[in-house]
Amino acid sequence: MRSFPVSDPGTPDRRSPARYLLWIARVQTATVVGGAAWGVVWMVTQALMPATIGRAIDTGVTAKNTDALLLWSGVLLGLGAVQAVAGVMRHRFAVTNWLGAAFRTVQVTTRHATRLGATLPKRVATGEVVSVGIADVSHIGNAMDITARGAGAIVSIVLVGVILLVTSLPLGLVVLIGVPLMAAVVAPILRPLHRSQRHQRDLQGELATRSSDIVSGLRVLRGIGGEQVFAGRYREESQAVRAAGVRVARSDSLLEGAQVLLPGLLVALVTWIGARFALAGQITIGQLVSFYGYSVFLVEPMRTLTEAADKITKAHVAARRVVRILNTEPELPDEGTRTEAAGAMVDRPSGLTVRPGRLTAIAATSPEDAQAIADRLGRFTDDEVTWGGTPVRELTLPAMREAVLVADPGARLFSGPLREEIGGRSERELRDALYTACATDIVEELPSGLDDEIAEGGREFSGGQQQRLRLARALAADPEVLILVEPTSAVDAHTEARIAGRLAEHRAGRTTVVCTTSPLVLDRADEVAFVDAGRVTATGPHRELLATVPRYATTVTREEEP
Fold first, then answer.
1. Which residues form the ABC transporter domain (predicted)?
2. Which residues pair with 394 in a beta bridge?
3. CB neighbours of 356 closer than 8 A, spacing ≥ 6?
4. With contact defined as beta carbons under 8 Å apart, do 208 and 131 qualify?
5. Terminal alpha carbon distance of the chain
6. Contacting residues for 222 by C-beta, under 8 A, at least 6 apart
7. Which of 520, 522, 523 lies closest to 492 in space, CA to CA?
8. What is the spatial distance between Cα 222 and Cα 47, in angstroms, rounded to a whole number?
9. pLDDT tens digits, residue range 467-501?
10. Is the CB of residue 43 less than 8 Å from the CB of residue 301?
């Protein structure tokens, strides 16, 4: 009973949380309407049962008419059968609505996060994204789930009110006035609940961000002895989340209490008035039994309406976070139309020229300058860079990402089989990439080799091993232009020398840029560009620059200037 496309979730309405929820409902119109229809049938059959029982008592038991008793008993049995079928179908549609809303939200959020790329961590906290995937999708799904029972509750309450008005005008008025009155009493509870839930969601997002920061930097924290400090901060923020949760629970408990108390008061009132009318002869015994049955039945649709109000409120809070992410725009506009470029790449701000088919090294006095050049060449920042005379902003972003790969120290390993993590178009290319990165020994030490499952972030590997595996992944991708930022900073000198020699051979004839100050790597480059204060001040072979440019020699040998 799949009713939503897996590959294309559609374009969401991100103007407001309410419009986003309405968009979800419109996209799932078939299942939402189907669920509501079955919900109405399911609830209406229950609403008709007290009337059927009352008729059986008046025409069968009181009148001692066996045929009438059997007839109305058969009607009651038929209503029960219809209710059972309708209940199953309503539940199926409700689950489909939940799954459709939840996973469509995951799809549109993930798709937009992919479109944002490097912009996402700059604009949206990690906790925000984590909270969407953990809690918010569930609340949005619940809002679609409740539509089936909510529609049935509304129709059944109206139906019961009409039946009571026809049977007894005072009792009908009690129900029709009492239901809106209870809704008016519940409304003031929802407002503070909405505020407290939104505040708790914000605090949970901040706490999730803090947790992510602590986990990712745990080794550094242990190295500098900062574990206790961050643990203390985490405890403080955790207590703030707990306090906010208590405030939410306080409002929630009032709502839960109202779900029991208010319908119970209505039941008691209707039963009391009905009993007085029966004693006065204004209604029959069967009608009194029906009124009592209706009073008990009304508890369920009334609780469903208050539950719907609660779930829609939570969904509105959750949708606010989703809309916030969807309204985040990429830093780089994708306005290009060209898909191909060839020739030398020129970074005008620094004066760097990267000639095609050569291994170019960038040695910068400041690592930040080298990283900035790498970002510009890869078009992670919008600046004056040309490729074969064509401004790179005229190329589409997908084309740039396909042709130019920037591998910096911030890259991460993901969980899953190591073979899939490294990639490569063939087994040979995969093995060559591992060999070039001197990572073959890492694979050999794993119990299942390339088929071994690695943990998130490659936590089972040392820093040097992770770096070599990330380098192998970049090499296996085999892009037209490969830009490596400090690819050997965490390995020993012997391994670094082997990687430098193998890298030059592996990428022979293809454009490669390496940002490094390692003499071992610089010595194998076809050309070295020395960057000082953000500008290229000298170019040439490593040994020539070492002999003729004192500032360069100081930078790569790490000696103090005289």
1. 323-558
2. none
3. 342, 343, 344, 511
4. yes
5. 77
6. none
7. 520
8. 65
9. 999 999 999 999 999 999 999 988 999 999 999 99
10. yes
